[in-house]
User: Which sequence fits this backbone?
């Protein structure tokens, strides 16, 4: 169609009238002349006769020039018209691209992973300093009052905080202002009016993203969600006339042209905010006039098609502000979380100025890498705000004095990297990787931020001390898995003793012999039969076993034999020979079946050595088989992800804990109660001496040649599995008691755990027995022990321990 129009226009302009029509016109003119008065004709004739030669020459030259000029003009118009058609088509195509891309705009936004909310309960053990640290890490500001959300205030004895609202898979939770005080190490929570409340909830914390193949980190804001202070600061620096121009700034372009002309090279651009958005979203960063022309045209088209609010919101979400590893941080909202650890609407003017100042050079003005340059650039932005009367002189001077307070960008990956591995592993079974990397899902986990940080610190600190004590331990590695005693949610996971995220998660990948950690499940299986109790006698004597063609003769750790011992003492002291005696009486096949019932999925061959811990499991798998015991039947699996929401806030999936334990609550509770003897009279006495008022269950574990150091500790709120070892499986100079136990002591010192409840479920009872007479003992008896029994298996006889006279 455009070509037909061009041909028609060209024909009309090059030959406006046909020859016959011109002749007809000439004849018509002649006729008209004949009809005219004779005087006029005579006068013309007389004039022609006056100077025929001169008149003829003058007419011919003028006509030729006029005709030439006319033809030149016509051809120029025609050529311009022909050339304008592809240009018009190009502009039409650009318009189509801008509208299609911007209207259907959908950024790939990685899924966000959140911790569990922290429930603060009145009566829980808390220190004021610990709560201050927790609030600070959650991005709360401390000031003179806590009237605004996200703010806190403190006195010598109290903390007030305006806790943020949040929404997770359990529903929406309103913000609340609470007063926290501390009475002898116990937390007291009140409203502002002084009314006591049972609990307060600190919102889930963002701990990371699941990028997958996506290389962009982003958080989307609508125009209404953009803080006005950010808009004001951004426009003051990047585009003062944004709400008045039509996509380009003539003054800006003229200024840039003049500077470039004077400098003899392209040194300055006159880009508006709209042009910057076009460049970031559609064009390359090359500096050519062709690209600049394209940018200008697309900016005009974008302004013509969309509102200023839409364009500004797109800019705020699109602008590149930082690089973290191979992930690019886009948008001011994501940058706010990355650099300050708090939502964009909670920043102050100095922080807005810092982010806006980074637009000019994200790498050059990165506050983590170039803090001095970043501060200078921030102050330049504040100066512009002052010059434009956005900031008063008083506020300007105050803002300049605010130091740069940014979070360590390496900390989040080092602190939560191992846990994110676990989240990714679980969700890969239920969600497509591309969906996790691009659909901005909200993933809520069971992670406890406080426990995670404490676990990382305990591991790094104790490994460093052990390496200092023995140089041969250089390179010692470790792993920690902390679960909620009741629901089985994984509260913390550490996969390395290194201070930087290593990428190899030993909590999942270090599959090693578990040593004596196999014993509590074995003893529990014996109790479940009803034929054994904690008072049952076991023979701690040497035996020889034929394994294939070889003879295996195990030993106790102390190389001694202890004769006949009660079952609770054999567990507490971790006697190998007594345990083998029990395994023989119970049946090795029954032992293997029980381990599989407790959750051991890894294939293994049942041999006598399995009863002493030759079974190879990862720390995570060990934590799983102990969970039913720790919860006394309330949970049988470990939970990582609690719920998943889509970008619209709809719940896609909820994960609930399982309770399909093949042992009764009474059996599990009896086993757990027996494990408390390990801390009171057995191999975990070191830990008990550090926590004299804490009632907890424990088990140490050491493998052949001390290649692995294990410890399991169970309190009222945490079940913890710890492993230490060498990646090359070298012999060590530490045992479970002198290695992993120290890490547990460090960890619990930071967490202030609760004691195990002394209550027992139906079907079991705790009685005081005389070890001399194996009967229920009176209080006056000396050689006695308090043990739990399944109802009906406890001693029936009683003793008063009276001397005969």
Assistant:
């Amino acid at each position: 169609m455009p070509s037909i129009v061009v041909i028609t226009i060209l024909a009309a302009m090059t030959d406006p009238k046909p020859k016959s029509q011109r002749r007809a016109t000439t004849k018509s003119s002649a006729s008209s002349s004949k009809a005219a008065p004779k005087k006029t004709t005579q006068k013309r004739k007389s004039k022609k006769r006056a100077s025929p030669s001169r008149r003829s020459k003058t007419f011919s030259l003028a006509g030729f020039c006029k005709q030439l000029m006319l033809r030149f003009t016509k051809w120029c118009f025609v050529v311009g018209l022909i050339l304008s058609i592809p240009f018009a088509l190009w502009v039409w195509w650009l318009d189509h691209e801008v509208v299609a891309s911007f209207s259907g705009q959908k950024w790939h936004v990685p899924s966000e992973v959140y911790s569990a909310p922290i429930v603060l309960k009145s009566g829980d053990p808390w220190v004021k300093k610990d709560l201050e640290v927790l609030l600070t890490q959650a991005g709360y500001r401390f000031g003179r009052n806590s009237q605004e959300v996200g703010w806190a205030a403190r006195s010598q004895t109290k903390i007030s905080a305006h806790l943020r609202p949040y929404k997770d898979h359990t529903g929406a939770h309103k913000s609340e202002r609470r007063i926290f005080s501390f009475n002898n190490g116990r937390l007291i929570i009140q409203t502002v009016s002084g009314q006591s409340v049972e609990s307060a909830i600190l919102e889930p914390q963002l701990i990371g993203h699941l990028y997958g193949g996506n290389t962009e980190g982003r958080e989307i804001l609508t125009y209404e969600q953009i803080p006005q202070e950010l808009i004001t600061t951004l426009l003051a620096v990047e585009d003062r006339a944004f709400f008045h121009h039509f996509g380009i700034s003539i003054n800006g372009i003229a200024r840039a042209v003049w500077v470039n002309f004077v400098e003899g090279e392209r040194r300055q651009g006159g880009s508006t905010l709209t042009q910057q958005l076009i460049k970031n979203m559609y064009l390359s960063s090359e500096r050519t006039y062709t690209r600049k022309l394209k940018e200008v045209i697309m900016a005009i088209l974008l302004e013509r098609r969309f509102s200023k609010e839409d364009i500004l919101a797109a800019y705020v979400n699109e602008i590149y502000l930082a690089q973290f590893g191979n992930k690019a941080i886009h948008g001011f909202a994501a940058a706010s979380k990355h650099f300050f650890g708090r939502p964009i609407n909670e920043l102050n003017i100095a922080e807005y100025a810092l982010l806006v100042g980074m637009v000019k050079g994200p790498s050059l003005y990165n506050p983590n890498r170039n803090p001095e340059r970043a501060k200078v650039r921030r102050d330049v932005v504040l100066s512009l705000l002052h010059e434009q009367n956005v900031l008063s002189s008083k506020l300007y001077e105050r803002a300049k004095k605010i130091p740069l307070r940014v979070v360590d960008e390496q900390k989040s990956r080092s602190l939560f990297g191992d846990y994110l591995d676990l989240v990714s592993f679980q969700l890969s079974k239920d969600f497509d990787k591309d969906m996790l990397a691009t659909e901005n899902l909200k993933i809520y986990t069971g992670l406890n931020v406080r426990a995670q940080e404490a676990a990382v610190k305990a591991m790094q600190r104790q490994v460093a001390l052990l390496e200092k004590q023995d140089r041969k331990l250089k390179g010692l590695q470790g792993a920690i898995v902390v679960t909620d005693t009741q629901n089985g949610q994984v509260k913390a996971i550490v996969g390395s003793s290194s201070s930087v995220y290593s990428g190899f998660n030993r909590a999942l990948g270090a599959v090693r012999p578990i040593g004596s950690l196999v014993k509590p499940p074995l003893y529990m299986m014996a109790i479940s039969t009803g034929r054994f109790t904690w008072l049952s006698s076991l023979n701690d004597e040497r035996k020889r076993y034929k394994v294939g063609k070889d003879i295996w003769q195990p030993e106790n750790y102390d190389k001694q034999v202890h004769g006949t011992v009660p079952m609770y003492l054999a567990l507490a002291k971790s006697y190998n020979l007594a345990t083998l005696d029990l395994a023989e009486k119970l049946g090795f096949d029954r032992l293997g079946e029980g381990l599989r019932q407790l959750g051991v999925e890894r294939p293994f061959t049942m041999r006598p050595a399995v009863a002493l811990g030759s079974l190879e499991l990862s720390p995570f798998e060990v934590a799983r088989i102990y969970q039913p015991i720790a919860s006394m039947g309330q949970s049988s699996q470990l939970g990582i992800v609690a719920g998943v929401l889509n970008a619209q806030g709809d719940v896609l999936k909820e994960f609930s804990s399982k309770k399909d334990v093949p042992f009764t609550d009474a059996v599990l509770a009896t086993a757990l109660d027996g494990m408390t003897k390990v801390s009171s009279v057995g191999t975990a006495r070191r830990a008990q001496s550090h926590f004299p008022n804490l009632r907890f269950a424990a088990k140490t574990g050491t493998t052949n040649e001390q290649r692995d150091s294990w410890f399991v500790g169970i309190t009222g709120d945490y079940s913890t599995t710890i492993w230490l070892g060498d990646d090359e499986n070298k012999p060590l100079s530490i045992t479970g008691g002198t290695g992993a136990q120290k890490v547990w002591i460090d960890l619990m010192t930071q967490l202030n755990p609760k004691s195990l409840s002394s209550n027992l479920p139906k079907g079991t009872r705790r009685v005081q027995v005389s070890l001399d007479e194996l009967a229920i003992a009176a209080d006056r008896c000396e050689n006695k022990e308090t043990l739990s029994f399944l109802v009906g298996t406890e001693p029936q006889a009683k003793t008063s321990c009276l001397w005969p006279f």
Summary: Residues 1-18+62-104 form one domain. The mean pLDDT is 85. The first strand starts at residue 111 and ends at 114. The CA atoms of residues 350 and 402 lie 7 Å apart.
